[in-house]
Amino acid sequence: MARADACMPLGTSMRVTGKKIYDMGREAASMLQGTSNWKDDKRHGQGTCLFADGTRFRGEWEEDAWLQSAAEPALTRVSGPGLTKALAGQTASFVIQAYDELKNKRLSGGDNFLAHLVGPAGVITHASLEDKENGTYLVTYRCTTAGMHDLHITIGGEEHVAESPYSVRLLPVQPVPRKCTVIGPGRIHSTTGELAEFFIEGRDQFGNRCDGDLESQMPIMVELSCKPFTCAVSIIPTDDGRYSCTYTPDRSGFYRLEVTSRRIHVFGSPFSVKVSCPHVFACLVCTSCPALPLFLLVFFSLVALLLPHACGCLFAYRNTQSLLNSAWARCWSGRILWRVKAVLTKTKGLLRTALYASYTSLYA
User: Fold this and answer.
1) I need a labelling partner for 226 at 20 to 30 A (CA). Which of 42, 273, 298, 316 fits?
2) Helix (H, G, I), strand (E, B), or coil: what is residue 24?
């Protein structure tokens, strides 16, 4: 038996090299029970210590002092809410009750208990331990990463205590708008007449994904607009800590997407959403499309350039092939190329000016 402490509850105590030793008188000796021997008027051998409150402890007597072994890992008990769950960023705790090898509660401290958590990404969080010097130890820890953790409780960093390791679930705290994120293709682009979708993920102050219904914790407002027009957005809370947002735009252009909660923008808000037409000719029927003047300009310029050339080719095909090789044909082709180059150069400047004007009017 490893002798760590010697104690007797009746009498006056004193500290000697980390052990509690109690003076024994004849009145105390009359309360001793067990099978042991006397030597030099002192108790020796195995026996039982009877405390004033009626508690009995089995142990060993040596020179009239009752000895108790150090903590036995397999018999030691651990209890408290911090063994199963905790909140991210908040202090959690549990208690270690040390037992000796004879299944008696330890009466003093000094045992080398250690505790730490291992997170989902392998991050280790060390716990703090307070020795109450009565066989119990208060263990506290604070972890900011939500998810399932493994709680390891050992003696000397080697032998696991009780049922260690324990599975501890760390829950996220209240969502914070500035930490929430918006994901999904509908946040970036969409097509007129087609349903687009994006999600708003609730996150707490430490960036952890929130669980459950967000509607009661963080109400959301979403506005999708392309001045002076707006697009209705449907917001549906899900059971996994998100909002599902859908919309169907009927006009193409660059939209401004604002996502707020109690007038506070979420992370990255406002966003720019590009709404495109399903095909290029849809711009002709989309009256609010900023690209309409641009498209008409390019379209009619190409028509004006290519129509004479097409008519010439058709005429040449119906007549003779030699017409195309004539000087007139070469001259006509040269004129066409020169006109195309000139118009394209001018169109480039007009396109740049029109794009700048459309962007300025949209985000003014």
Assistant:
1) 298
2) coil
